[in-house]
Amino acid sequence: MAKKQGIASAPKGKLGILLPGMGAVATTFMAGVMAVNKGLAQPIGSLTEMGRIRLGKRTSKNKPLIKEVVPLQSLKKVAFGGWDIFKDDMYDAAVHADVLDINLLNKLKSGLKKIKPMKAVFDPQYVKKLNGTHVKKGKTKMELAEAVMKDIAKFKKDNKCDRLVMVWCGSTEIYIKEGPVHRTIEAFEKGLKSNHKMIAPSMIYAYAAIKMGIPYANGAPNLSCDIPALVELSKQTQTPIAGKDFKTGQTLMKTILAPGFKARALGVDGWFSTNILGNRDGEVLDDPDNFKTKEVSKLGVLEQILEPDLYPELYKDFYHKVRINYYPPRGDNKEGWDNIDIKGWLDYPMQIKVDFLCRDSILAAPIVLDLAIFLDLAKRSGMSGIQEWLSFYLKSPQAPKNRYPIHDIFKQLHKLENTLRYIGGKEIITHLGQDYE
Ligand SMILES: NC(=O)c1ccc[n+]([C@@H]2O[C@H](COP(=O)([O-])OP(=O)(O)OC[C@H]3O[C@@H](n4cnc5c(N)ncnc54)[C@H](O)[C@@H]3O)[C@@H](O)[C@H]2O)c1
Hints:
The protein is α/β, with parallel strands linked by helices and 437 residues long. The protein has two domains: 14-246 and 362-423, 3-Layer(aba) Sandwich (Rossmann fold); 250-357, Dihydrodipicolinate Reductase, domain 2 (2-Layer Sandwich), CATH 3.30.360.10. The protein contains 16 helices and eleven strands. The strands form two sheets. A seven-stranded parallel β-sheet has the order 3-2-1-4-5-6-11, with helices on both faces. Helix 7 (141-158) crosses helix 8, helix 7 (141-158) packs across helix 9 (201-211) and helix 11 runs parallel beside helix 13 (288-306). It is globular and about 65 Å long. It starts with 13 loop residues before the first strand and ends in a 14-residue tail after the last helix. The structure holds nicotinamide-adenine-dinucleotide.
């Protein structure tokens, strides 16, 4: 039998990673990659760097690194850029974010100092708690999108990049519901020219990237590229996209635990989740309009995993509540606390408590890396539109029209792994066959 060929072309030259929003997550990501490149730390949490994948039957015991199966961009050949409403270079921004140890940051100082944010597309109407001065001026939103495209072209040239990707790491914007202006490319472009108020800054960056064929991922829960107009544009320009909202602390735990309860036919009466965090993200989410966006993103998960319509005896009236409390002393070291009321045999109630003392940006940074590296792989593989196989990384995954998103982390992993096998020209594993291997 002829050997199957992988579908991705090999990466050439440098990959530019562009980040709108250069706060805690973005600086932890960039400093982390620099630290890894200098041999100062391990890229823990990143599948593109450390993950393995099974190939063939279990008996062949073949589990190479993912990066040996598909051609991924080397971390040694990346350049970073981005935009923020504050002028701080990446050293000062990382010190302000107070995530990484100052001794580590000092070892990376010269590299971090060189990265300075470009002027942002920003309007405080969409992020009520922030106001910055490092902001672009333009008569229309279309002019602002064109200015972002100019920034991108200049960055690519100045940094001698072969290809680019963009990952939104900006603040969570106020809740916006999809409306007519988001439905078609024509309506959206008209809206950009007439300063339609339902077009938020994150959509302007997304439009600029996708128009230029640059893969785009959205790490926040705001709509951004999750609107029909930008999905359509992504197909037209052959651009892979992914969103929304990095799946990091509490929701990661939820999508690990809930599939387990469901798998064992255990009931759930209620799931109360609360968080305390004190970083800038926490401050932004202290505003009800911005929190609403996050709340919608966090609430959707259980409904889809538990499917109360199909299992009314187990989940019909389950009560799900999510709170986020801004509590400055905690900084980036969030505490996510869950009380889960479950029920077993003959309706007997039980409780589970989860207290996750996590670090927000430490969990998010490897997700930024994997999304950037995998989206670049998708682009080189000729894939475009919504990349559902990257749902694994996202709290509120974008799904094609008329299809529900998958939240169960194990199903997401299965899809991710099989997509990688497909891209690498390897056999898909279905767990079926002669001996159920
Ligand atoms: N850390 C996590 O675990 C996690 C998980 C899921 C989602 N997120 C989301 O990731 C995003 C980043 O989180 P963070 O902790 O780094 O927050 P942060 O407040 O430290 O950084 C966000 C940065 O975005 C900038 N910004 C806001 N609007 C902008 C715009 N229009 N253009 C350019 N810059 C803009 C802000 O000035 C700020 O520096 C947030 O939306 C957050 O909700 C984080």
